[in-house]
């Protein structure tokens, strides 16, 4: 866990164990002012394997597993989600995503946006970022 002081408010960053190392110059989680900001999570497993050739459903399950791990590593959880942003390559997969997400989130219903995009890194099909309470 990294600690960074931003002046009046301390901010800390977290890269939870059980998740692949970030693939760029960022942390999986940044915590500030009682909020947990989770960087975009791609369907990459803990060993760093990119699930490019796996079906959309498997990719969604991995992304949501990564999101849960990031939240847990920050001392938060799914019930504390405030906003979720979803990027999908094929908007035709929206219903499938929504079904898997609803099972995963249960009674939690944070604000959410689903954004169709032309492409994601490594040819992956879905990415999710979120904000939660600490």
From TrEMBL:
Composition bias, Polar residues: 1-18
One GO molecular-function entry: 2-iminobutanoate/2-iminopropanoate deaminase
Classification via InterPro entries: RutC-like_sf, YjgF/YER057c/UK114
UniProt entry tagged with the keyword ATP-binding: no
EC number(s) from the headed UniProt entry: 3.5.99.10
Pfam families found in the cross-reference section: Ribonuc_L-PSP
Region (Disordered): 1-22
A GO cellular component annotation in the UniProt record: cytosol
Keywords: Hydrolase
Gene3D superfamilies tied to this protein: RutC-like
Recorded family membership: Belongs to the RutC family.
Identification of the protein by name: 2-iminobutanoate/2-iminopropanoate deaminase
Organism of this sequence: Ralstonia wenshanensis
